[in-house]
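Look at a sample.

——
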Amino acid sequence: ENQAKIEKMAEEIKIKQENANLTQVKAVSKQAGFKRKKLSTYSWDQSDKRLKFYLKGTKNVENNESSVKILFPEDEKAPSDKISILCTSEKDKQDYLFEFPKFSAEINRTAAATIKVKDSYIFVSLAKKVNGNWEHLLADDVVKAKDKADKMASMGGLGGGDENADPQAGLMNM
């Protein structure tokens, strides 16, 4: 009985690892003589059709689109909900890599991206696969928001979708 459970768990882990490998963003090897710096400072905005990113921390990136590359998962059939953006500064021999965690929805990889290089930031605009407003950018944020709403609902306060819930009950449960 325990052996069957162990085998089942091993099979589930194997499936998860295979799925994770499909969604890995294409790795780009460092250019000879270049340093690579991973960055995570950005801000974002959205319209119904596009996501807009303002990437900060890049210096001396040449003012052309060819110095900025958007990297999608290698497998064309894999969901395009995870991307990386690679910016290159020939002057400083420096690559800047922005690796985004999994998005809450998919990016349209066939639509043209808009890239503008400024002195203090890089602007990147990507098309959404499905038009509409995203409540959260990242998949982790969706999970956190749901957990918070469930916790509030279990405490008797608002947040669980129950319009008749007593708002003071949440305070009393604290």
Summary: The beta strands are 35-39, 42-46, 50-56, 68-71, 84-89, 94-99, 114-117, 121-127.
